[in-house]
Amino acid sequence: MTERIAVYPGSFDPVTFGHVDILHRATLIFDQVVVAVLDNPLKHPMFTAAERIALMREALDGDRRVVYDTFDGLTVDCARRAGAAAIVRGLRAVSDFENEFQMALMNRRLAPEIHTVFLMTSFSNVYISSSLIKEVCRLGGPIDDFVPEASARALRRRLTPTTTEAAP
Ligand code: PNS
Questions:
Q1: 27 lines ligand 1 (CB under 6 A)
Q2: What is the rounded average pLDDT of the residues 3-17?
Q3: How many CB atoms lie within 10 A of CB 85?
Q4: Which of 76, 154, 92 is nearest to 129 (CA)?
Q5: Residue among 25, 52, 89, 92 flagged as catalytic
Q6: 157 Cα: distance to centroid of ligand 1 (angstroms)
Q7: Rounded to whole angstroms, how far apart are CA atoms 59 and 54?
């Protein structure tokens, strides 16, 4: 039987419990899920693609159905390279929908054989986004309920000034 492969593309800067939730749901449907980390310096990510993958690996604790790739071109090209039949995207709120719908239709136009599958995150994750968590961390708020331990550690190292750094 042929393996059902899906690509889960994103910035993952860094991985949140929302991403982990979607990834877990995707592994219940597909035999293999390729996490495709966007490696585009023009987007000014906080973490390099290698760092983002390392944080995801730690969060996923070696799930063998999950593999990792980076890409800097079209998502559909990445999906084709991986032999994927589907692109997985997470939906949180209605506000996500318009942009996601536009991307899904463009991707279908570019690669009609690849289907976008939207998965809903659990209710407790609907307001979590990497950018919001970065802001909370930067302003000294607690982030442990929103991101895996490795992400929280990495964010605090990057964003919370140490006593020495804060000294004039
Ligand atoms: O985690 P994000 O930032 O919401 O992920 C967005 C991503 C990487 C999925 C999106 O920017 C993307 O697909 N980029 C690749 C460029 C592309 O394929 N564009 C044309 C289709 S819309």
A1: no
A2: 97
A3: 17
A4: 92
A5: 92
A6: 27
A7: 9
Which residue is listed with tokens 């289907």? 115
Distance CA 21, CA 24 (A): 5
Judge contact between 126 and 30, C-beta under 8 A.
no
Check if 130 is active-site.
yes
| The two structure tokens encoding residue 112 | 């009609």
107 has pLDDT over 90: yes
Contact by Cβ (8 Å): 18, 90: yes
Residue with tokens 């990495």: 154
Element (H, E) at 71: strand 66-71
pTM to 2 decimal places: 0.94
Cis peptide leading into residue 14 (ω within 30°): yes
Residue 90 in contact with ligand 1 by CB distance below 6 A: no
Cα separation, 158 vs 19, in Å, equals: 21
> Three-state SS for 168?
coil
Which residue has its alpha carbon closest to ligand 1 atom 17?
Answer: 74
Tokens of 159: 């964003």
- Side-by-side strand order, sheet with 5-10: 66-71, 32-38, 5-10, 86-91, 115-120
Q: What is the pLDDT of residues 87-102, one digit of tens each?
A: 999 998 888 899 999 9
* Amino acid letter for position 109: R
